[in-house]
Predict the 3D structure of the following.
Amino acid sequence: MNPQAIKVACSNCNLRELCMPMGLSDQDLNRLDELVAVRRRIKRGDTLFTNGEKFTSLYAIRTGFFKTCLATEDGRDQVTGFQMAGEIIGLDGIVNDQHSCDAVALEDAEVCVMPFDRIEEISREVTALQHHVHKIMSREIVREHGVMLLLGSMRAEERLAAFLLNLVQRLNARGFSQSELVLRMTREEIGSYLGLKLETVSRTFSKFVEDGTLEVKQRHVRILDTEGLQRLVNNPAHCH
Amino acid sequence: MNPQAIKVACSNCNLRELCMPMGLSDQDLNRLDELVAVRRRIKRGDTLFTNGEKFTSLYAIRTGFFKTCLATEDGRDQVTGFQMAGEIIGLDGIVNDQHSCDAVALEDAEVCVMPFDRIEEISREVTALQHHVHKIMSREIVREHGVMLLLGSMRAEERLAAFLLNLVQRLNARGFSQSELVLRMTREEIGSYLGLKLETVSRTFSKFVEDGTLEVKQRHVRILDTEGLQRLVNNPAHCH
DNA sequence: CGACACCTTGAAGAGGTTCAAGAAATGTGG
DNA sequence: CCACATTTCTTGAACCTCTTCAAGGTGTCG
């Protein structure tokens, strides 16, 4: 076990409403505290888990930022998602008892380790947790549907617009600005996620700056015209 | 309730091993029989559920073939998957208590209707079912990762090759030929799934025929060179 | 301060799309 | 059961978006 591991409790975690079911009795809340075995710190660039690794636990992100990516033997590489505080990571491992992607910290991070057998055990008794686990998995499925729509039917500008809107929306839910954000990932990682080359991502950023839609200074992005981005994502005139 | 509904039992269904957990006691099997409320027949072209519809049940496909697709108001349309006998459909609905995509029968079909509250109830008591439900959802997440890899990093030929290999592999698991298949979907639907235009799908089929990789007669496809397709999907030389 | 990773921009090229026309298959109604 | 309408599929040619290759700029961290 990681030496930096720390004993903790969900019941007084300020992210509870993001990663845990709401409206539990005190009794149920106590049961949930058995859920998190330990916390674990991950340094920027390190992996939380890797492809092929035995699956034991789901992880709730307390702080930090992750990417999950699929790297095949033959050199293909696909970022399948970016995860931030309050989100659950590791669901891919359940089906085959081993992880099928890598989770890499894009900044120093801390996660709550939730052994999956314990999750199953407690969710047999706490209906709200059972339901919550199902919802989390379903949400991930629906999110991926959205990514498929993006990858399958959008052009570069639309993809980047959708990506940025999704990011700020999630950051906003965590109390951050609706219009300003700091990207934790490189252009290449954005490109991999969006099915574009890094040059295309860079060029598209530049185009948005020219248009007056964005202000971009390296990884600092300020959205000047949210509706413009929204129009790009929604306007049928841009569809093909 | 659908008038064509028929009372039935999982315990003597020949698809059980495809959609249900294995190695259950007789007692647990009896509990599972409470799971399927009714069966329902869907005619080709009809929907099993549609976007926005209230979510109540998961569906196990007994016979027939479905596509799930996301149609946005602004005219985008994305096929998110094709499902065949033994597969579970409807997971997208759990998170918001309403379906977020359409499930359309591509041929006359019959499904087992499994009310989700009953699934949750029984899986609290039958651990194997609980675990099975988790695995099914995780499998769908992993499948979608694969689609993201396909959409994000493959070119047209590679996408079609991966698509065909995946189809025959699943058909083979159901006792069909490893090398011959009848497509239940149009070129346009394949294209939507693969992020390509129907013309590109058609041209790519033609190219495979010229290469001697496939024999194609409308929707009848015979794979002459499985390894050739595999090489296309795996060979790093084709990556970009 | 120098090395390295990351980002930007240009120019040429490739892969896929669009538009268009026609052929083949499928379904429908008389 | 056949004729007609409709859907589906194929193929060509022009075009466009994104990629590739290349070079230089910017930022960051030991």
Q: What stands out?
A: Residues 155-156, 196-197, 199-200, 203, 218 of chain A lie near DNA strand D (CB under 10 Å from a C1').
